[in-house]
């Protein structure tokens, strides 16, 4: 019996939007990892990056992921970097169904353009820098994302495709 679904993928891939739709469809709870971290530590992601650096953030993120791994009937929207640190990807694969929402750097660039402010890794990037950053980071992260049990085409998959993949 599946108890958890983890949506993974780059920033801007639609993990939160799809996660909310999917949780409505399945009657499960949506847990956005960034919000979970912010609520637990009473700080924004930006403040955590400023105060503890990215390494400090990754440790907090890994700790939260293990806490969430005990929840039942949850759709988890992982952070874009979550699968790429410690053995987080193995933890997710062992405790639920993992779905990688895959998109090209060009589409991610379009979607991220207006949504950079709360994301410290891209907040200060110019238009020109953003696409180069996404392309490079995605290449680095793809080996981790590819360990997902399901690969979803982010530009064509609808909520019913996700439900079917979870049930299969
Ligand atoms: C990050 C993605 C963010 C957030 C943090 C770092 C990343 O989450 O965890 O800013 O390393 O890609 P979203 O993918 O939900 O934006």
TrEMBL record:
EC number assigned by the record:
2.7.1.71
CDD domains under this entry? Answer: SK (cd00464)
Q: Which UniProt keywords apply?
A: Amino-acid biosynthesis, Aromatic amino acid biosynthesis, ATP-binding, Cytoplasm, Kinase, Magnesium, Metal-binding, Nucleotide-binding, Transferase
Q: Name the residues that bind Mg(2+).
A: 16
Which amino acids does the record list as binding ATP? 12-17, 119
Q: Which NCBIfam families match?
A: PRK13949.1 (NF010555)
Name-wise, this protein is Shikimate kinase
Native organism: Plebeiibacterium marinum
């Amino acid at each position: 019996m599946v108890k958890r679904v983890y949506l993974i993928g780059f920033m801007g891939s639609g993990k939160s939007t799809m996660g909310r739709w999917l949780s409505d469809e399945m009657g499960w709870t949506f847990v956005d990892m960034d919000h979970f971290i912010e609520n637990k530590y009473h700080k924004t992601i930006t403040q955590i990056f400023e105060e503890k650096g990215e390494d400090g953030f990754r440790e907090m993120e890994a700790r939260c992921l293990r806490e969430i791994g005990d929840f039942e009937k949850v759709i988890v929207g992982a952070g874009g970097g979550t699968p790429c640190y410690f053995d987080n990807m193995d933890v997710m694969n062992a405790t639920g169904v993992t779905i990688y929402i895959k998109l090209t750097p060009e589409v991610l660039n379009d979607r991220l353009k207006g949504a950079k402010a709360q994301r410290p890794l891209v907040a200060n990037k110019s238009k020109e820098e953003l696409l180069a950053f996404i392309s490079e980071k995605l290449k680095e992260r793809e080996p981790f994302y590819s360990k997902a049990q399901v690969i979803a085409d982010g530009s064509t998959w609808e909520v019913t495709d996700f439900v079917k993949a979870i049930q299969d």
